[in-house]
Amino acid sequence: MHPETPAAASYADELVAGLSATPRRLSPKWFYDEAGSALFDRICTLEAYYPTRTETALLARHADEIAAALGPDAEIVEPGAGSATKVRVLLRAMQRGGWRPAGYLPIDISGAHLLAAADALRADLADALPTLPVRPLTADFLQPLQLPAPLADGRRVGFYPGGSIGNFEPGEAVALLQRFRDWIGPGGGLLIGVDRIKDPARLHAAYNDPEGVTAAFNLNLWARANREADADFDLSAWHHAAFYSPAHQRIEMHLVSRRAQTVHVAGHAFTFAEGDGVHTENSCKYTVPGFQALAARAGWQPERVWSDPDELFSVHWLTA
Ligand code: AVJ
To answer: Where in this chain does the record put each Histidine-specific methyltransferase SAM-dependent domain (predicted)?
Structure first.
């Protein structure tokens, strides 16, 4: 246990609570320990997983327009920054446009991964933006969180790429978008990536890669529990399940028991029948107007949308 990362210290508590609930569930934020963050980076390179390359291409292709929307002197706040790969495209575009981003404030639950990402970003941008203030913040942004005082003139913009807003059911997503708006403040904006509703077969394939990386990512929840929550999961007794629910317009991921078994977590015993599952992730998909309406419920003004010719993914610019 690492006392400096309170989120990690409560995995055992949340796992016990989630396995005691009906239906059994766990927040997807627990995917992202060191091993899980590395597995997620591998997911992003998979042929079947179209969101990363589609969104990165959109950011590159429309970089000048996006930089103009972000405006000069903005400090970019990125909740769940992970490896901070996509923001480099933005920062370079802003710099090419003659603008000097005021800073970059990445927030992530996975502390060591974040600090390494911040170092890599500084090194990568040493040519273009050698003095850019980079202020990584290790935190669970779903918990109450006070951001450091803004830099420069205080103008902030949020960056929430990847379609991660899909992890939240619509009501929760509105609440999170409201929080982002409170952090950003008047005069700011939010650049947010949203995965679009599409052919269910295409969605299904993106979460059932033949390489088994997504399965390993899901099963890492149990491996992590064995590492840090005093649990005795037998990984071979579980399988990854991911499917599209048309009723909810979302991918659901579950971990499903292959047989009747009892598992112990932090001194608690949990019994599973063959086929019993634990719901580990939702990934909600939106039409463009559907997401704009959601953002408006949170008080954001939809200003621009960029999407690819195949209509796989959308990048929205919202103003506060
Ligand atoms: C990081 C939430 C956007 O929902 O596509 C990828 C996570 N889960 N493969 C997604 C994920 C399985 C991803 N987000």
So the answer is: 13-319
Identify the domain containing residue 260 by its residue range: 8-47+200-284
Summarised one tens digit per residue, pLDDT across range 11-59 is 999 999 999 999 999 999 999 999 999 999 999 999 999 999 999 999 9
The CB of 138 under 6 Å from ligand 1? The reply is: no
CB atoms under 10 Å from CB of 212, counted, come to 11
Which residue from 32, 40, 251 has its CB within 8 A of the most atoms of ligand 1, so it is best to mutate? 40
Residue 211 and residue 179 share a domain:
no
271 HSE (CA, 13 A, CB side):
1
- Whether the CB of 214 sits within 6 Å of ligand 1: yes
Residues 144 and 40 in one domain: no
Task: Indicate whether residue 281 lines ligand 1 (CB < 6 A).
Answer: yes
Same domain, 125 and 169: yes
Into how many domains does the chain fold? 2
Q: 56 with 193, same domain?
A: yes
What residue's CA is closest to ligand 1, atom 4? 283
Residues 296 and 310: their CA atoms lie apart, in Å, by 26
Residue nearest to atom 10 of ligand 1 (CA): 283
For 233, the 3-state DSSP assignment is coil
- Tell me what the pLDDT averaged over the chain comes to: 94
Asked whether 111 and 100 are in contact (CB, 8 A), the reply is no
144 & 241 share domain: no
Please check whether residues 177 and 36 belong to one and the same domain: no
Interface TM-score (ipTM) > 0.90: yes
